[in-house]
Fold these 2 entries.
Entry 1:
Amino acid sequence: MSEPTTRDRVFWGAGIVVVIAYALIPVAWIVSLSLKPASEITNGKFFPKNPTFDNFSAIKDDPQFPSALRNSLIIALISTVLAVALATLAAYAIVRLDFPGKTLIMSGALAIAMFPPVAIIGPLFNMWRSLHLFDTWFGLIIPYMTFTLPMAIWTLSAFFREIPWDLDKAARVDGATPFQAFRKVIAPLAAPGMFTSAILVFIFAWNDFLFATALTSTNKARTVPAAITFFTGASQFDFPYGQIAAASVVVTIPIIVMVLIFQRRIVAGLTSGAVKG
Amino acid sequence: MTATTAAPAKQPPEPDPEAKAMGKKGLSARARSERKLGWMLCAPAVFVMLLVTAYPIGYAFWLSLQRYDLRFPDDHKFVGFKNYGAVLGNSLWWQDLTNTLVITFFSVIVELVLGFALAFVMHRVIFGRSIVRSSILVPYGIITVVAAFTWRFAFDPTTGFVNGLLGTDRSWFTEQWSSYFVIIFTEVWKTTPFMSLLLLAGFTLVPQDVVDAARVDGATTPQRLRTIIIPLMKPAILVAVLFRTLDAFRIFDTVYVQTRGAQNTETVSIIGYQTLISRLNLGLGSAVSVLIFGCVLIIAFLFVKGFGTSLAQQRGETP
């Protein structure tokens, strides 16, 4: 393409500003709400006049938020590790091995990606009560792992198809042991795909509200999205706007950091399934 | 050894022509062990997926045939399809189904248009590409509950800035249409980025030289969009719309946070949740669950039937 003209620059510059405003104005809004002192919460202004961290110290001392944050982190991390591990085995087999039933597995996974979670919360609620999984970390990890496996299998298969697998044979001919060939040649090539699916799984588990509110009842396993909706103010007439905003900011930070660092990988992950599908 | 390097990765290593000719019965030991390994590697994932989706949906069907309320555990018996009669005979179910369909329809339409524009910006932008992509991933990554609270507080007449901006003093959550508006607005804000990334993948299917040739021949931008870009992107558009429609149909978080179903904005997921978890009526709630599952099947079926060939084309490109 030829050098962009000034008119092009202005046009695309305006487009970029619109996109950034679209994405970030709500974030700026919740941040400024979280910094407002109680006296300014209802003044309807976008920015706080006298910013304070009172709301953040309030949620630090909240009876449920710190444990919810811990539950969220641990549950999302364990779900991520398990889902990526199982999906890697399956995607490797689907890409590399010839066996009947792989189309069935891929389309079954696609069907599960469209499955409505609300259709199984009743049975899971009842099953988890009798299996003593209700209100435990694993009671949430199991559904998160399940509902992210399809996405992880599809993304990983798309990535694995691009790997020149025969390189490891070449390395072995050159005298590498099978383990060395795997560690030095294949693992570095497979890592980006696994990493990308890990980010997508983590975002799903971090985001879920339905299972988190249906399958937990106490601080033992309740995660942040559920805990936020259960915040109560000092009295029933005192709705905890500021604390909800502060908690929202705290749980949004890890996501924004991840998005800024891994932007390229997330885009690759979300678009790979669609094109390669 | 070097000769195999050129072979496409998805083919089994060194396919044995003799074994293929012999057919199923005479599989070589090597092919048989490959099959076994393939099944073994997939088994854990398949087992987990079946255990947490297929088994519970079967169990939900079984529960839906019973009178089973956890608050009255002694009154537990098989009632056949009575629960379905109770749900389908109740106008609340039909009202909630209508609400869900209205929210789904308007969200997906607006997202498609906005997502297409966003994908176009991302595809064609000549500088600042990474800042655009990072920005649009923020709504995608944000927790739905947080997005719902953010917009609820923004529209709230006591805390929000929206009324000041528009110069009104409307109470958005006291009427049905304005509650609908805020819910759909939130959904659109949160999920348009996802839609646009799926469409961006579609843009890469459009060969740039074809578009350039049309421009040289004097086609205007709308003409190029209508006659070249959109037809070539049709498979990607259909996949994106199908995914988002099914996703929007199960809307729960936003409605729960913003109205909890008040002002007649209750959706099918909310009624299912309320019956099962708040009222602990497993029999009736499971009937709702099974009906929601049925609706999802019908939507998926209509899409595949209506646009099946395009979807198959898309799938067929790289099996």
Entry 2:
Amino acid sequence: MFIHYLDLSWRSFKRTPLVSFLMVLAIAIGIGITMTSLSVYHMMSADPIPEKSSQLYSVQLQTMDDGSTWWTEDNMPLQLTYQDAENLLNAPTSEKKVAMMRTGFSVYLDSDKIKPFIGNARMTTPDFFSMFNLSFLYGGAWSKEQEDSAAPVVVITQEINDKLFAGKNSVGELIYLDDTSYQVVGVINHWPLNIKYYDLNNGAFNQVEELFMPFSLIKAKELVSWGNSNGWKHENTPTFADKLQSEQVWIQFWAELNTLEQKQAYQNYLLAYMQEQQKRGRFNRKELEYKLRDVNQWMQYNNVVTEDNKILVGLSFMFLGVCLANILGLLLAKFLRRAPEVGVRRALGASKRQIFLQHLVEVAMLGFIGGMLGIVLAQLGLMGVGQSYDYYENLATMDLTMLLSAPLIAITTCILAGLYPAWLVCKTNPAIYLKSQ
Amino acid sequence: MLEIKPIFNALCRSKVGAVLLLIQIAITTAIVSNAAFIIQDRISYLNQETGYPEQDIFKFNVMTFGTDINLSQQFELDESMLRKMPGVVDAALSSSIPLSGGGSASSFNLKPAPQEGLSVRTAYFFIDDHAINTYGVNLIAGRNFTEDEVLVTNEITQKRTNVTIVTKALLDELYPDGDGLGKIVYFGDLPLKIIGVIGKMKGPWLKDSKPDNLAFIPYIKAASYAQVAVRTKPGQRAAVMKEIENAMLENYSKRVINNIKGLDELKNEYTAQDRLMMRMLIVLITILVLITALGIFGLTLFNISKRTKQIGTRRALGARKSAIVSYFLVENALICSLGLALGVVTAILLGKMLMQYFSVAALPPSYIAVTAIAVFLMSLLAVLAPAKRAANISPSIATRTI
């Protein structure tokens, strides 16, 4: 029966090509526009690490004295001071944790074959790789001992390995970063990350760093942050040691807490830590405050999806609403014109239900064709989006969810639009039309 | 004369089509007026005056890894080499670059820290006496730095900088009475005398809470990572940009020169999201208006085919062609007016919602008014062609089949 209805729909489509085409066009444009903005929104808000996004927590401490303000919605600094990061890192607690900062080096080899270039580096602790689910192509992370002794070691990305060592296993090789040589201990596989959720300070859609190195090198090499450093009071920090002891915040800190108990224990620890620091004259406030936000909360808190995107999605759906009204009007016209034919079919024994279904199938077919055409339009739209904004290149694509939901939304919209006309036409009283034949 | 009453009665007999059209017109009005307002807002943001001859300025980064030189001396050499390059007007080491989205900001205070007093947020550049000429900005009062006032250091010394040049916006905020030139402001606990005022120049962030506040502080701390700004003669920037890497490496080779970008390019990158939003909204409202027009067009065609006999009868009874055309125009105008009334309300509500949930300013009524007029005209245009066709229906149709 379904096939028969489809056949009938196709005939009806061919009988009134102009109106049918207009309807398909309306739905295609509506879907095209909606899908373009929805896809960007979807990619921006997508969970970057779904398997453990609820176990990774970004740690924030309220270091400011009472009366000082920060620009975040809850008045909390986004990063930690170096001293807090170091203390939390060295805490005798069992969970995995990582402190980190972005910086950069001139990268070159001991030969003239490769022109020196700038490499972005993440100074971090060895747990980084297992916490954020990075996998190694060669070698592995540096050891705890190497971390503690600020050993000159480096983990590089596959891309850099291809560039410097033509893709060969480079573990044990030396590369030069600024004025020092570092030994490669590992090469990580390509890490495709649309949203740089672990450090949102300098844009959510920036590239992942190419070099990963021990956090302890910051102190040893006096490395400055290439990200943000912010202060909330005037401090004189002429030397690097002063900066390390200052209240400036410039370190990102994450902890992996797998169970509720673990989370509770960590919260208790943070409170105890701040109370202890209070004795040393820091955390001058009545109420001690900390925040643990998991990956998705962190992204929301940092407004990864911009206002503009939300407005666009909203307007696009209103636009789809206009298309729906448009199609409804056209469907009404088309179906009512066919009333005589329906009258005959009813007289020949078709039930109202069958007539209703037949028309819904016809509408769904229009929706399907429109949806398919809409995907094509959305691809064009996304191409335009990707070209206008470098960072959007990875985001301006439709993943499987979006590709599947496009025809789904199209068909749903069309069926919604078709319900009333189909109902109207199935109510047709056969007698009237039989009389005037 | 316009026969509104019978037209209205006829409309009431086929409500659904009219209601659909009404809804379309209402939503269209709401979206278009709000989107047009956001577009206008973005256009004025994107086209704002920055104070710089953006086309003639570019910047590049220097990352030095060699340790066999004195960085300060090297930068002196580089600067004098750059200034001598053909096509270059001036060049200067600049701690941040305007419009780039990256830089430093702090506050200027009327009292030295930790005393409390008026405190104004401002971006600042550590730069030398070539700043004004390199950035091509206008000194409207006071004087430039002298060479002696520029502190060049790689070491921590007791000697400190004691002058600054600020923008008029910053000066007016610190000294609303307009007597700020020559006064002392505090950068932390460091006193700085305001010796010059720049008419207009934007800081590193166009979206900052104080985009117009910027101060030059004559202090050069040579570091392994540095940014250099260069102004060229009009039309010669591309050529200079192409040579810059080689020229710099020839001067000293153990370093990386990258990020060679024009000021306009930096601005484009910084505003990319806004341009994208603007373009998407323009596409959206254009298509929206077209779709609505198409809807009106389609519905009128349908009505005409439904009423072919009726029109033929009217013509046979003596109605002029113009009466038929005006019938459809008036019918459409009726629906459209109702739709617009609803649309104005929806537009205001939508504007309120955008204002409440997002940082969109209040929608000025003029946008709604202009949109309403435009939608009305558009709907009349969409009806005109089908109505003329209807007028051409021959009276004989009415008599042919009864």
